[in-house]
Specification:
Strand order of the largest sheet: 1-4
Order of helices and strands: EHEEHHHHHHHE
Mean pLDDT: 85
Number of strands: 4
Helix content: 55-70%
Distance between the termini: 30 Å
Largest sheet: 2 strands, parallel
Radius of gyration: 20 Å
Structural class: mainly alpha
């Protein structure tokens, strides 16, 4: 017998138009982490010491950007693909506006007594090719991540959460990396083809590793939200097109 604290198994179609206590907060966290990891993390190349390898450089954004994929997992697992789809589109629109705002603000002529224009351009200047690559990779990777998780939830009957959080991240981050790095850096000055492939594989491994390490936290958050919302959404009969707007 189901105890009062257990979530109710419902299909996504039967939940259309439903209201949730925490959905807006999860969406806000997703968009905030996405924007901050692009603004704060993307501008710095850090390094770590690896035994037997030496110092290994990596983009600082890698520390926090994968959290957006974890939240994407939570959104699909708890609220279903359709609501995750709306959040992905909100994140895409936010990134596009951020890129547009950065371009406008950097292009504005600085006041004569303001001496920080060069530093500002280094941090917030946007290379159109990289912006395009980033938006395309994020959009495609997030939708693959959400789709794979929703499908795997049906295949597993809602059991073994770790298989679909890790499996969806493996697929989603692979698509993200396969789009971003070649589109952004293939043939660019200072980037050999071998270096592009090396960085692509390294970033993919690091992002998936983050997902694996944070799996216990994902279990805690998913469990809390399902109990708090009182539902466990299964995408039975869901239209998985990325371009629909209904929930």
């Amino acid at each position: 017998m189901k105890t009062p604290s257990e979530p109710t198994h419902v299909t996504a179609r039967n939940l259309a138009g439903g209201q949730f206590r925490y959905f807006d907060f999860v969406m806000a966290a997703f968009v905030a982490i996405l924007l901050l990891s692009n603004v704060i993390g993307a501008g710095k190349v850090a390094q770590i010491w690896l035994p037997g390898v030496g110092y290994w450089p990596f983009g600082a954004g890698i520390l926090f950007f994968p959290i957006s994929y974890i939240i994407g997992d939570v959104l699909t697992e708890v609220y279903g693909y359709a609501r995750a789809r709306r959040v992905i589109w909100a994140g895409t629109a936010a990134v596009l506006f951020m890129a547009f705002m950065s371009w406008v603000v950097v292009a504005l002529p600085p006041a004569p007594d303001w001496k920080n224009q060069a530093a500002y351009e280094v941090i917030f200047g946007q290379v159109p090719r990289i912006v395009l690559a980033s938006v395309c990779a994020f959009w495609a990777g997030e939708f693959v991540n959400s789709y794979v998780l929703a499908r795997m939830k049906l295949w597993t009957g809602g059991r073994m959460l770790w298989t679909r959080t890790v499996g969806s991240t493996v697929a989603g981050q692979a698509v993200d990396s396969l789009i971003f790095y070649p589109l952004a850096f293939w043939g660019a000055a200072g980037w050999t083809n071998a270096l592009v492939l090396k960085v692509l594989c390294t970033q993919w491994v690091l992002k998936v590793s983050w997902e694996v390490l944070l799996t216990p936290l994902t279990y805690i958050v998913v469990g809390f939200l399902k109990r708090a919302e009182g539902v466990d959404v299964f995408d039975e009969g869901t239209d998985f097109t990325p371009f629909a707007t209904g929930v």
